Amino acid sequence: MTSQTVLRIDDLRVRFAGRDDFAVRGVNLDVSKGEVVALVGESGSGKSVTSFAAMGLLPRTATATGSIRVGGEHEVIGQPDAALDGLRGRVVSMIFQEPMTALNPTMTLGGQIAEAVRNHTDSSKHVALERAVELMTLVGIPDPEKRAGQFPHELSGGQRQRIVIAIALACEPDVIIADEPTTALDVTVQAEILDLLRRLVRERGTGLMIITHNMGVVSDLADRVFVMRHGQVVESGPAEHVLTDPSHEYTRTLLAAIPTLPPAAFGGAEASSAPHEFDAPEDPVILLRGVNAGYRVNGRHVPAVHDIDLAIGAGEFVGLVGESGSGKSTVSRLALGLLPASSGELTLLGQPLNELKGRRARRLLREVGVVFQDPGGSLDPRKTAGESIAEPLAIHARGMSRAAKRARVAELLDAVRLPRDTASRYPHEFSGGQRQRIGLARALALTPRLLVADEPTSALDVSVQAEVLDVLRSLHAELGFGCLFVSHDLGVVNELTERVVVMRRGAIVEQGRTSDVLRAPRELYTQELLASVPSPDPIAQRERRAARAGLLEK
Fold first, then answer.
1. Which of 80, 99, 242, 294 makes the best surface tag, with the fewest CB within 10 Å?
2. Is it the case that residue 218 has pLDDT exceeding 50?
């Protein structure tokens, strides 16, 4: 281990109690000072187990052998908790995937960063808080003196992730491990976080190991990449070489599963051509014309969306994209009848949704199905998969016999390509992709004419995502429902939808045929969204990064 090597893993093997097989088998990996190494693979490949082993955070049910050395000299495996506490934060730090669960909701942001400082230094509380403000400035938090006194819920997801990065940097560790640090973020916020990590590595010489399933992130950030499958490293090498000329079939499969974007014109003559205008189809399944809506906050009305013109025809797939806070979820709630329009025209199957109440509204809304973002959180853990799928039938088809309901559940499981014995099992027994298929089966139980899919694949690995999208695509072709597909993944939107609607700050800024909007975006905001999507092609990624830098200067 050279003086420049800040993390070295030799023949790491991890086994959990009650299991005969190894979760990690013979992993060898190293990270040098100022280097970014990516660890990629599907869920269950051993990425997170490897990262937690490097932090000494494996549960007591795990047994690890081999060697993990951090900071050039400190062994992790076999060390007591007291010794590991002295390393974590000072020598090796971690950026967790979900900042809201990584941060203490009862402590101020400045207090949490200062706590990390005081854990490893003899700094006074005042000096530690000054250091916290300094770190908040470093990671790009606006008005850091004010934000230091705020709490996690008062910040956006991207800002919370910056706070987690500040905590990881508090004691200037030799190596930082980032576990899926951008998975839940919109593409523009993701691009900002990646820019920040790249700058910190370059300027401070910190080693960075990033765990991700996003090959675009690897292309954008990593110097080297290690591909894991079934607990083993199956391929490694310079990121550009692995991404452009992979030697292992598994790596090729991962790359082939990535949704792609067409080459877009960023600000050129083509991009400034005729605008993509709203054009309502005949007999739309749902129509919003001039719709305004908002929420009651502390007794007053707070606008959320304004002048929304959107329609979905029978059998039409429409994508809805934009950053967090753009109004996508509000439009979804309007379509689901969960939020009334304060003004404008809102019709579902030709019926004025705002004017219907009670039984008439329920009868109409049974024509709408919904697939949620988090397949685990949307299923009742106390109910079997079959009971969850049959729930809409129990509510809206009360005259249906038990045998008929069981037969319908079996049909739906066949439709989403799950074995029929799935019906007797519980949500915790399934993978994320399987749970999402169960959610899709439930959404289609009543054969709706409109399906609202709210970020249904954002939490899934690329190969699992591809399977779920293939199921959704085939069901759409078979059943012919209209679909409002809400997503921040423009590659998925490109592959799946016919039209796309772009939202920003509660308004629609651009809409039209997906191929037109994504190839020749008229609005600067749409161009920035497209330029922020990381590409697994290193050459294309360099072009997008340059395009984004140019757009941000405008």
1. 80
2. yes
Rounded Cα–Cα distance for residues 5 and 304 (Å): 50
* Average pLDDT rounded to a whole number, residues 326-336: 91
Contact 39, 29 (CB under 8 A): yes
Give the CA dihedral 24, 434, 536, 8, nearest 10 degrees: -10
Q: Which CATH superfamily groups domain 5-256?
A: P-loop containing nucleotide triphosphate hydrolases (3.40.50.300)
From 47, 139, 40, select the one nearest 99 (Cα to Cα): 139
Instruction: From residue 353, give the alpha-carbon distance in Å to each of 344, 370, 486.
Output: 11, 17, 21
**pLDDT at residue 274, rounded to an integer:** 45
Total number of residues shown for the chain: 554
Q: Residue range 259-287: average pLDDT?
A: 68
Provide DSSP, 20-40. Answer: SS-SEEEEEEEEETT-EEEEE
- pLDDT tens-digit map of 148-178: 999 998 887 788 889 999 999 999 999 999 9
pLDDT of 99: 82
Evaluate whether 44 touches 231 at the Cβ level (below 8 Å). no
CA distances from 474 to 154, 387, 480, 496 (A): 41, 24, 10, 11
Model pTM? 0.82
* Cβ–Cβ under 8 Å, residues 53 and 76: yes
pLDDT for 1 equals 47
Bridge pairing between strands 207-212 and 36-40: parallel
CB atoms within 10 A of CB 535: 21
Is the confidence at residue 447, as pLDDT, over 50? Answer: yes
